[in-house]
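Blinded run. Sample ID left blank on purpose so nobody reads anything into the name before looking at the predicted structure. Input follows.
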Amino acid sequence: MQTELIRYDTAKRALAELISVDEVKLIRDKAIAIQEYARRAQDRQMELDACRYRLQCERRAGELLTETVSIGGDRQSEKAVSSAVDTAFNIPPGISRDQSSQWQRLAAIPEDIFDKKVESLASPLSAKAILNNQRPVPISGYYEWYTPEKYIELSREVMGSIDLDPASCPEANKIVKADKFYTREEDGLLQPWYGNIFCNPPYASPIVDRFAEKVADSFLQAILLTNNSTDSRWWQYSASRARAICFTLGRIDFVNANPNKKSSPVRGQTFMYFGNRSDKFCDIFRETGMVIKI
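Blinded prediction complete.
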């Protein structure tokens, strides 16, 4: 039975590559079974290892659940999205609301602190014990993530300027420096669009769908930054109208007001270009990843 539990450090690295909550939960459930087997067999070390791995699984699941709601998007999350953890859209079957909340709180603990707590366990411990003395963190809408400056400057170089960011907030615009931006309260979907547009909308549906499709239909020069959701209807719709696409090499490390907080997107990103400078876009964004002119 012990051979079923991969070495802890190797298994932890493998977990970081998983992008499906279902996959992580399956491994977590297996760790629980091994933990129970070890308890009955009175194998203390195996029980501890399984417990540690289970907690790492729960933290990774929490990261993925959090990403589904809030990662990406220069505009702050919609109020409707902040409670999305209660919906089937954000909680896969087999995961309770309490589990989702608890796992996302585990994900909110800085990784170095979490690792020290887990690795220093002297006996099997529940997630609740790890959370002791940890300040609860709202499930979404607490950490906001913004586009790193280097991508903004590449976009500005392609288009010549950024006249409008229709899905933004004051903090994000300190980086984007658009001449005009619309906040959540103003609802950029209802406002006039003009000039050269940079748009990195919130990545939760149906908000991302609406922004992506409006960019595609705007007939303006624009760069749209979203998750690489190639299987979604809105992504394919937008891509079919783009003039060029950049598939990022690696995942973008979105930035936050807290320099010690790092994002961990569940998938890569794409920049879609709309306009008549597709050759220039490909030349400039080639350093970011694979580019395709359409």
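Unblinding after everyone has recorded impressions. Confidence is low (pLDDT under 50) at residues 1-6, 77-89, 135-143.
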